[in-house]
Design goal:
33% of the residues lie in helices and 19% in strands. By secondary structure, the chain is an alpha/beta fold. It has a 5-stranded parallel β-sheet, sandwiched between helices. A 5-stranded parallel β-sheet has the order 7-6-8-9-10, with helices on both faces. 31% of the residues are buried.
């Protein structure tokens, strides 16, 4: 039987929330998503063994909600685990509302889902705020080179474009948005080359997730798309990426554009 999770947040349709819930479900968890505005007692059931609270901001409603969880989580007859996700300030505010001994673990934003999944797999975890964010082993990078992250679900294209840039840059690849988000916690990235059309979470979803987090909001993003469609291009540009390039662009021109970007020059796609 799958472990049942109650995922509680302010904005149920937030892109980052959708990403986390998708990865939890893909990892075998049965996840119910609830708004933080509801009374805790209205959705708590004996089937919920894990509670994850995503703190996006903090309001009087948040304080009341978190305060009501003390009674629920303190029920000695139920084996329940409580996890918090938020900025340092969010977590400090939450700790003032919840007895810390009831909190299994706290994760700092921006969140690393690999750390979350690893922590959820521990049978008897202990809460430690100072150790809440598990930093992965450092990935070796050549400090004299710029670093590219290429995100595309087409493995053949991903490997092809990787080969085009490895002579000049540190290159990392990810075949999904969730993999890319995990990788960004491990390596410094100077530029992301991003596919537009991907399953589950699209390139635009990924862009919005990055822009919603202080640690990633300023990372430059250039879309690589096979869609030479005016409406799609306008949709991309509306979100304010660094630029977009077609996948049909010749390798020499694509490399030239990336070089221009790092030299502070205009990309050829921009209208004069």
């Amino acid at each position: 039987m799958k472990t049942k999770i109650a995922f509680i947040c302010e904005e149920m349709n937030h892109f980052l929330v959708r990403s986390m819930v998708t990865e939890l479900r893909e990892s075998g968890y049965d996840v119910d998503v609830y708004p933080m505005s509801v009374n805790a007692y209205s959705f708590i059931s004996s089937k919920h063994g894990i509670f994850i609270i995503y703190l996006d901001g903090f309001s009087s409603d948040s304080e009341k909600f978190l305060g009501s969880l003390d009674i629920v989580m303190g029920d000695k007859k139920k084996e329940r685990r409580l996890y918090l996700i938020g900025t340092d300030e969010n977590l400090r505010q939450a700790n003032a509302c919840i007895e810390q001994t009831l909190v299994t673990h706290a994760f700092r934003r921006p969140i690393n889902m690999e750390s979350v999944l690893k922590e959820l797999s521990i049978i008897n975890p202990s809460y430690s705020y100072d150790g809440s964010l598990k930093i992965a082993d450092s990935t070796v990078q050549d400090s004299s080179r710029k670093t590219l992250l290429i995100v595309d679900d087409d493995d053949i294209y991903l490997r092809t474009i990787e080969n085009w840039f490895t002579d000049e840059y540190n290159v990392y690849t990810a075949a999904s948005v969730t993999s890319a988000l995990s990788l960004l916690k491990k390596v410094h990235t100077d530029l992301i080359l991003l596919d537009y059309e991907m399953p589950l979470l699209s390139g635009l979803d990924f862009l919005r997730i990055l822009r919603s987090e202080p640690a990633t909001e300023k990372i430059p993003i250039i879309f690589l798309t096979a869609k030479d469609d005016k409406e799609i291009i306008l949709e991309i540009l509306k979100e304010g990426p660094t630029g977009y390039l077609l996948k049909t662009t010749a390798p020499i021109l694509l490399k030239h554009n990336i070089k221009n970007f790092f030299e502070g020059k205009e990309l050829w796609w921009k209208d004069e």
